[in-house]
Task: structure prediction
Amino acid sequence: MKPHIAVLPCFGLGHLIPFFEFAKRLVVHHGIRISLLVITTNAPSAAQDQLLCSPDLPPDLHIVKLPPVDIDKVPSDDKLLLTRLCVIIDESLRSLKSVLVALGKPKALVTDIFATQAFDVCTELSIPAYLFCTTSVTFSAFMLYLPKLDSEVECEFIDLPEPIQVPGCTPVRTEDLLDQVRNRKIDEYKWFFHHMSRFPLASGIFLNSWEDLETVSINAIKENPFFKQIPAPPIYPIGPLIKQEETLSTADVECLEWLDKQPPDSVILVAYGSGGTLSVEQQTELACGLELSQQRFMWVLRKPMDAAGAGTFFNAGSEVNDPKGYLPEGFLNRTQGVGLVVPSWAPQVSILGHPSTGGFLSHCGWNSSLESIAHGVPMIAWPLYAEQRMNAALLVEDIGVAVKLKVEVGQTIFGREEIARVVRMVMETEEGKAIRRRVKEMKESAANALDSNGTSYDLLSCVARQWKTDLSL
Result:
């Protein structure tokens, strides 16, 4: 009899995709039966629906939708992204106990970092609870360190005179701190701190990374005296778990056919993940910068929003969008043949895996970063929200697979000349070639980690064996 495990991602594609791949891997490679518990709302998310209705679901992977939350009843006037997210999850998880009982009490539950309410339910039902961090190990180390930082620092973290020294890890510059820890007086920080402070309650922490990619941070959590005295739960770097298949629409096929006509490594993909949006002014500068660069490009374009950079987080893939309404006049005509503008959504994994794709201007969400590395595509870092500034620093300075744009003195956005310069640098120069060689090395390392003799495969296999052993007791 196969052990039955429940996995619980929080809301949003950035969390759902790695959980989905994690679940498939446990089923296909390790003989585990999985119930994937999905938090749902009354708002449409075409991209989520497409993912969960995949015709390639393995037989032992069962989708269990939790009762939908009416997000119209979740006040949004003054609620920032994470606060809204946590309120929705809190509401959804009211049904968790009855769902787990109806499923026959799974052998273990693997939950998301923003759904640690599940720990209380699991304690009540005597079910071991694990975490799956869909972020970098470097960021996970920061989260484990946060309670200590909070207790010792009186001012706001962004006012500290020096970078934050997470024990055994690369220091974190205050300007790279995620938005959620920049103001400790607001609800968003309180929600974030609440969930992060509960990490030590987990039976183990799965991490979407691998030993070669983040050696320093992995060793710090395992060996540094600070993390030992918490004590940090056992960690299992089992990545990179990235989207493997995509259901292609007619428009998606047209994107790939356009790429088929371009030379190898000649096209830069411009995309900001499932939730990312730019302001009107910044989008205009980006358009002009791409045109100035004279490089081939494919731009997955969203309607600009002058609010936060996560404008489509709650309805990914569902927005109505006509690029002619907000691109610079004549842009589409002038770049015809050189660039392709794709409204709202494109098959990112298929594009990154295409031989013509030679660069990726990315928001540095961790899923997109792993997809780019796993396909050997160098990145231009353009972080927008959440922990993306910290990811950008890691990708540029520690791993060496990306370059950063610079904001000119006195400006608050990236200018067109800077955008054109960095695009040309990645696509044409020796510096770009060096980054390309480095990312190709990490592509090979990623494949080796997931191979049946690799470190990531072995660690997941070890936990799966433990679940099977416990079943036979």
User: Anything to note?
Assistant: The CA atoms of residues 309 and 351 lie 23 Å apart. The mean pLDDT is 93. The longest strand covers residues 33-38. The radius of gyration is 22 Å.
